[in-house]
Write a structure and sequence with these properties.
Strand order of the largest sheet: 2-3-1-4-5
CATH architecture: 3-Layer(aba) Sandwich
CATH class: Alpha Beta
Structural class: alpha/beta
Distance between the termini: 13 Å
Number of strands: 5
CATH topology: Rossmann fold
């Protein structure tokens, strides 16, 4: 039984989500909850090895999707589910929404194949809250290209990221109770005020259930 809270952050590369993860961790801890911070692909020894392959080695689209979910299954079994069962909050940088967006949308695999994998690997596990960091793609690309060397996904062309962003926004529109869309073109202070208000709501709701 899930006793903790599962939180995820999503967004196209360059949207700025990673800039807020450490702050979110501190904010959750300030509310009195033990938090496990992790990422996908990755989060386990095997997952991190698969991450290196996924980010840097060319492969068939189906292979890419299967490896994403292979890493995710290991991540769930070793990290996410044990932490939730222990009453901890889990803060994860990407989860299955990223597969719908990147493989399903960006690479045009479509949502049906991702849904099949999702229903096999984690049919009863979904985040309680997903913060989707969104901003115009030209701004995301500008931010990305001035910060680091680009991996295999980050090197994709603009139309790939248009499809990826559209897939993210489609999922957010379909599930507004779970998703909180963050305008990532705001200042850091404005974004964190928005996150703080949402975290407080989650905290109070969580306290009512325990």
């Amino acid at each position: 039984m899930q006793k903790g809270l599962f939180l995820t952050v999503e967004g196209v590369d360059g949207a700025g989500k990673s800039s807020h993860i450490e702050w979110l961790q501190d904010a959750v801890e300030q509310l009195g909850h033990e938090v496990v911070v992790t990422r996908e692909p990755g989060g386990t020894v095997l997952g991190e090895r698969l991450r290196e392959l996924l980010l840097h080695e060319p492969m068939h689209l189906k292979t890419e999707a299967l490896l994403m979910f292979a890493a995710r299954n290991e991540h769930l079994e070793q990290v996410i589910l044990p932490a939730l069962s222990a009453g901890k909050w889990v803060l994860c940088d990407r989860f299955s929404d990223a597969s719908y967006a990147y493989q399903g949308g960006g690479r045009q695999l479509g949502g049906a194949a991702i849904e099949q994998l999702e229903s096999w690997v984690h049919p009863n596990v979904q985040p309680t809250r997903t913060w989707l960091f969104d901003l115009p793609l030209e701004v995301a690309r500008e931010r990305l290209e001035r910060t680091r060397d680009l991996d295999r996904f980050e090197q994709e062309q603009g139309d790939f990221f248009e499809r990826t962003r559209a897939a993210y926004l489609h999922r957010a529109k379909a599930d507004p109770q779970r998703f909180c869309v963050i305008d990532s073109s705001q200042t850091i202070a404005e974004i964190r005020l928005e996150l703080e208000a949402d975290l407080l709501q989650l905290h109070h709701a969580f306290r009512e259930t325990v």
